[in-house]
Design brief:
Among the domains are: 262 residues, no CATH class; 86 residues, no CATH class. The protein is 35% helix and 18% strand. Strands 2, 3, 4, 7, 8, 9, 11, 12, 15, 16 and 19 form an 11-stranded mixed sheet that branches. A 3-stranded antiparallel sheet has the order 1-13-14, covered by helices on one side. Strands 10-18-17 form a 3-stranded antiparallel sheet. Strand 8, helix 10 and strand 9 form a beta-alpha-beta unit. The longest helix is centred in the middle third of the chain and has 31 residues.
Length: 518
């Protein structure tokens, strides 16, 4: 590939090199490396089930140590709310009130979501704001027919000259209606953070956002911070970062040529949430909680959510203390074969490590070196919920190209849809990933791991897109909790479904976990 001077300048401005762009091209050209699933992780086989009697132990274990730790809650929050309203945009585009009534439209279009939305408008958290805006623009609203009112309501929500809700980042969208105010998802994360992501009454939260919405997030923080601090008794350190331009990736045409736009410039695209491993790597904290921006609940459920987060954190800290103790022993003590057997038992049973086949035949020094390398890694404890048909990745035992088997979170896009055996493993899995992680990112000497060393770059995604009418093949970096954490030590823990409350469409806000009952 020969790059023009214009190409070289553009590549340099993105913080990339021509070699890196060539490497991206090679990844796309070679095709996606699908995961090799060996079996689904299940309770007792890769997923830990915590009995009720154990819960208080792990909660207390975390609480007894939290004030000596630096803790942060990391929230990917750059996503726009656009997809929440897809069925409403479809309604505006397809519905013609002159062709029949509202019921006939639903029957013909099979748009059941608009039916549900219409029947429960008053429960939507932004109902009053929309109605007020309607009356400001259309004083005759009350005189409209049922169908006309519904059309006017949706137009008011989505029209760029009115409320323009689809432009909002999901974090700043009104999620929950309380007696005296409507809370955004951003606000709810602060309340949650005070419960489990704080030490010494100070809560640290880090949001990765779109640079376009930076001022809006800061404005919202200024608006709510004093109230949240008063209600929680915590102070807050809220920071923001953006996905780095240097993590953007190129695209190829169907003929595997570098795609350029109509002005002859290379098309660089955001590379998915896997790019955020760079942002995560820059945090200097002992413990990092990770949770998506839309996975929040109303305050009456906060204590339940917090306790389960503390359980995950307690498991992490207990295992981490044992890991640190063993690493110090491996470095300073004169260990024998019997000592190593107990360590192997620990890494197998507690860290789910499948020990190398040739381990037993290795020398003592080689065994010690191997165990050090296996133990001295970042640790993640991931909540997993029972599979009830929700989309998303799941927990699996996966074999890599070197033959090493490990626990991984695998997205459906990483599984070869033409392979019947692999698809059956995917379909019959018992649990899925709600993005509920607690991470230990410092080693036994108190030094931060370089998280970029633990990424499986072969786990990149190749997706088919259309840009300005041209079919292209785009590259996404290994997902943040997929390939970007492939070489971490991993513990999966079953958590209840109440911990998973995503808002994928606006109708999800009608679920009990998003409705204030008292």
């Amino acid at each position: 590939m020969i790059f023009s001077e214009k190409d070289k300048i553009q590549i340099k401005n993105y913080g990339l090199t021509t070699d890196k762009v060539k490497a991206q091209m090679a990844l796309i050209t070679s095709g996606m490396a699908y995961s090799n699933l060996k079996e689904a992780a299940t309770v007792g086989n890769g997923i830990l089930k915590i009995e009720k009697a154990q819960e208080s132990h792990f909660i207390n274990f975390f609480d007894s140590r939290r004030d000596k730790l630096s803790i942060v809650k990391f929230v990917p929050a750059s996503g726009a709310a656009t997809r929440m309203f897809k069925f409403l945009f479809d309604f505006l585009n397809d519905y013609n009130r002159h062709d029949g009534n509202f019921d006939s439209y639903i029957e013909k279009s099979n748009n059941k979501e608009i039916s549900k939305f219409s029947e429960t408008l008053e429960k939507i958290p932004f109902f009053e704001e929309v109605v007020q805006n309607i009356h400001n623009v259309n004083p005759n609203y009350n005189e409209l027919s049922f169908e006309e009112k519904r059309v006017e309501f949706v137009k008011t929500m989505l029209d760029v000259s009115r409320l323009n809700y689809s432009f909002f980042p999901k974090g700043l969208f009104p999620f929950h209606k309380y007696k005296n105010h409507v809370a955004t998802a951003f606000e709810e994360h602060l309340y949650e953070g005070a419960l489990y992501a704080s030490s010494n009454k100070k809560a640290n939260l880090h949001f990765t956002i779109s640079e376009n919405h930076n001022e809006n997030f800061k404005k919202e923080l200024n608006h709510i911070e004093e109230r949240v601090e008063k209600n929680t008794g915590n102070t807050f350190n809220v920071t923001f970062s953006f996905q780095k331009k240097s993590t953007d990736t190129i695209a190829l045409t169907t003929n595997n040529e570098l795609f350029k736009d109509e002005e002859g410039s290379i098309l660089f695209r955001p590379s998915g949430h896997g790019a955020l491993i760079e942002n995560l790597n820059e945090l200097d904290n002992d413990i990092i909680f990770i949770k998506n921006i839309d996975n929040v609940v109303v305050k009456e459920y906060h204590d339940i959510i917090s306790n389960h987060k503390k359980i995950l954190a307690g498991i992490l800290l207990e295992v981490q203390e044992q890991v640190f103790k063993i690493l110090h022993q491996l470095e300073t003590d004169d260990l024998n074969e019997d000592d190593l057997k107990s360590i192997v038992e620990f890494v197998t049973n507690k860290l789910n490590v499948v020990v190398a086949a040739d381990f037993e035949n290795s020398s003592l020094d080689s065994k010690i070196f191997y165990l050090k390398e296996r133990l001295n890694r970042p640790i993640r404890v991931c909540g997993m919920v029972k599979n009830e048909g929700e989309p998303g990745g799941g927990p699996f035992w996966v074999q890599d190209k070197k033959g090493i088997i490990s626990l991984q979170i695998v997205e459906s896009a990483q599984v070869d849809s033409s392979n019947e055996n692999q698809m059956n493993l995917l379909k019959n899995s018992t649990h899925f990933n709600p993005v509920d992680l607690v991470c230990g990112v410092k080693n036994y000497k108190g030094e931060s791991f370089n998280l970029l060393k633990y990424v499986d770059h072969d786990a990149s995604f190749i997706t088919k897109k259309n840009h300005l009418g041209v079919n292209i093949k785009a590259l996404e970096l290994p997902g943040l909790w997929n390939g970007s954490m492939a070489y971490w030590n991993t513990i999966f823990v079953e958590v209840p479904l109440i911990t998973f409350n995503p808002v994928k469409t606006v109708n999800d806000l009608l679920r009990d976990s998003h409705q204030v009952s008292k």
